[in-house]
């Protein structure tokens, strides 16, 4: 089991990476433009939303990622550049061109990302004026500023950085994300950016990212809405000096996979914890399923259920809603074998066995559900597969926030 030494700095805790976060004017006062820059050519991998409606930066980046190396990612908040037609694509390209000019790198080495209001043209005068400022303020201590600049309705920045051992060599990973609402399995209005000094081939990095995202970011939900702008991108510049990872069979590959999973799991949980209006983090663990797919379907269905989420907010141990959600999830299981527990720092209570309710302590159950982090454990009692999903409660404030999002 690898040990992770947590260090400050976020994405710029990794050697040869710089970042910045500035105010360009897309928002009234808060930082709204971030830049990530690798002083060395890096290989890049990316995963994007499954929504058929994809924002212009995603369509642009899907082509850009075909380039062998990447040096920079420019990110704005306050405007999604989504549903903006041909002009949106031109604006995304203009952001990349301006960034490349200011950094002195190839335009093919620049990725673009946007988040914010959908269907509104980008204020390109402000963005293009902000990019030189972001380049000027690039710093090896700029990770936390970049994490702040990509936020929209987030209530806190989300970042992590740590060192670990890869085949005897010390390697570092830094990561940041934003996301609070429009979050659903297969990603939501969430952006994730990860830097590492590991040496790994582009193809293997892409394969690894896809596998990790499937078990982390694709297992969170806040509100059932899958966004037009989700993306997770990893840049690896190889400056750690480890022997190049080219295959899953290479010594050290499993350490890299586990470390990337650790970073993405942490950020996924932070996004779920910061769900718009949320007061509780919900973790759903499904055990003893016939297949991993069955476990995943069941866990995501429980986390996504508005009835489960509102019961969590009301601290009501309504286990029937949990079983009902599994029932429509598409998972194969025998309802007559299901066992359900609720857990938190306040204790543990089994609420169902054999698909039927148990006599349980209602007061204790209420105290369990009153905690800031609540676990629902479902034993399908069918096989050996398991999966975990993360979500949050559904509160009055969620409606308030999204009822006036554009204003």
C-alpha Rg (nearest Å):
22 Å
Assign the CATH superfamily of the largest domain: L-amino peptidase D-ALA esterase/amidase
Quickly count the helices.
Answer: 11
Q: How big a fraction of the residues is strand?
A: 25-35%
Total domain units? 2
Given helix and strand content, the structural type is alpha+beta
| Element pattern in H and E | EEEHEHEHHEEEHEHEHHHEEEHEEH
Quick one: overall form? globular
Low-confidence stretches: none
CATH architectural type of the largest domain: 4-Layer Sandwich
- Text of the CATH class of the largest domain: Alpha Beta
Query: How much helicity do the residues have?
Result: 25-40%
Oligomer: single chain
Could you characterize what this model shows?
- Helices cover 32% and strands 28% of the residues.
- It is an alpha+beta fold.
- The strands form two sheets. Strands 1, 2, 3, 4, 5, 6, 7, 8 and 9 form a nine-stranded mixed beta sheet that branches. Strands 13-12-11-14-10-15 form a six-stranded mixed beta sheet.
- Helix 5 (202-215) links the parallel strand 8 (191-196) and strand 9.
- The radius of gyration is 22 Å and the shape is globular.
Give me some keywords for this one:
single chain, 407 residues, alpha+beta, L-amino peptidase D-ALA esterase/amidase, Ubiquitin-like (UB roll), 2 domains, 9-stranded mixed sheet, 6-stranded mixed sheet, 11 helices, 15 strands, 28% strand
């Amino acid at each position: 089991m690898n040990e992770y030494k947590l260090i400050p700095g976020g994405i710029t805790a990794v050697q040869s990476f710089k970042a910045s976060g500035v105010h360009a004017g897309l928002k009234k006062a808060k930082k709204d433009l971030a830049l990530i820059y690798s002083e060395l050519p890096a290989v890049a991998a990316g995963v994007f939303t499954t929504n058929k409606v994809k924002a212009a930066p995603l369509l642009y980046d899907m082509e850009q990622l075909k380039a062998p190396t990447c040096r920079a990612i420019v990110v704005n908040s306050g405007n999604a550049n989504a549903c903006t037609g041909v002009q949106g694509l031109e604006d995304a390209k203009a952001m990349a061109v301006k960034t490349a000019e200011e950094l002195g790198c190839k335009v093919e080495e620049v990725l673009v990302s946007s988040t914010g209001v959908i269907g509104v043209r980008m204020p390109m005068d402000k963005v293009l004026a902000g990019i030189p400022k972001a380049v000027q303020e690039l710093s090896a201590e700029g990770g936390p500023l970049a994490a702040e600049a990509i936020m929209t309705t987030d209530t806190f920045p989300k970042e992590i950085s740590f060192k670990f051992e890869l085949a005897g060599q010390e390697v570092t990973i830094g990561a940041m994300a934003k996301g609070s609402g429009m979050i659903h399995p297969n990603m939501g209005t969430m952006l994730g950016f990860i830097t590492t000094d590991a040496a790994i081939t582009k193809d293997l990095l892409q394969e690894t990212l896809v596998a990790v995202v499937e078990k982390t970011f694709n297992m969170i939900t806040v509100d059932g809405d899958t966004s037009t702008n989700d993306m997770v991108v990893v840049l690896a510049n190889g400056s750690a000096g480890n022997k190049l990872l080219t295959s899953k069979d290479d010594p050290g590959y499993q350490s890299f996979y586990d470390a990337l999973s650790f970073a993405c799991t942490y950020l996924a949980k932070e996004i779920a914890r910061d769900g718009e209006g949320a007061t509780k983090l919900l973790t759903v663990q499904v055990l003893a399923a016939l297949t991993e797919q069955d476990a995943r379907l069941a866990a995501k269905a429980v986390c996504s259920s508005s009835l489960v989420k509102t019961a969590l907010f009301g601290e009501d141990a309504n286990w029937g809603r949990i079983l009902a959600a599994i029932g429509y999830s598409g998972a194969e299981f025998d309802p007559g074998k299901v066992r359900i527990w609720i857990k938190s720092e306040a204790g543990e209570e089994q609420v169902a066995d054999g698909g039927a309710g148990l006599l349980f302590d209602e007061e204790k159950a209420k105290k369990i559900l009153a905690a800031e982090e609540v676990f629902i454990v479902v034993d399908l009692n069918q096989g050996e597969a398991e999966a975990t999903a993360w979500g949050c409660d559904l509160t009055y404030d969620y409606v308030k926030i999204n009822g006036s999002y554009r204003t």
